[in-house]
Design a protein that fits this description.
Pnp Oxidase, Chain A; 36% helix; Nitroreductase family deazaflavin-dependent oxidoreductase; oxidoreductase activity; Split_barrel_FMN-bd; F420H2_quin_Rdtase
Length: 159
């Protein structure tokens, strides 16, 4: 009898499927990102080797004033995270706002855990599913999930 797969294993497989995770990008590029609601954001960044524009759509885990915070579910190995770490070039598209220049701040592990704890309280069902999928992706029960903060260039340029 084949082994039953968990919801976390299914979710991890979906997150590893390139065409699925890239499917929202054309909506944002066409100015229709608002259809996905306020909990999603498209980050345009620059390839650390090529310098070419790259795009990723991720969930916003927290908004505070002008700050938008997102988590890297694939950890520090995700390409978009590595690109931002290398050059810090970011433009955000969320709601009806398109390609807004943003500064990037990489939160400390302690700050990131606090952000994710608040997210878990605000969205317990989503956190249960996402944290299980991230643990599956990382291959460990309590992976380090880096959190990044985007803000206006003149405000958050303190990395």
């Amino acid at each position: 009898m084949p082994e039953r797969r968990t919801a976390a294993q299914w979710a991890a497989d979906l997150l590893r499927t390139r065409w699925i995770v890239r499917a929202p990008i054309p909506l944002y590029r066409a100015g229709l990102g608002w259809l996905l609601g306020p909990r999603m954001v498209m980050i345009e960044h620059r390839g650390r080797v090529s310098g070419e524009p790259r795009f990723v759509v991720v969930e916003v885990v927290e908004r505070e004033g002008n700050a938008i915070r997102v988590a890297s579910g694939f950890g520090e190995t995700s390409q978009w995270y590595r690109n931002l770490r290398a050059n810090g070039v970011a433009f955000l598209s969320t709601g009806r706002a398109r390609r807004v220049p943003a500064s990037v701040r990489f939160l400390s592990e302690e700050e990131g855990r606090a952000v994710l704890a608040r997210y878990a309280l605000a969205h317990p069902q989503a956190w249960e599913q996402l944290s299980a999928a991230m643990a599956e992706l990382a291959g460990e029960p309590d992976p380090r999930i880096p959190v990044l903060e985007f803000g206006p260039p003149e405000v958050s340029a303190r990395s």
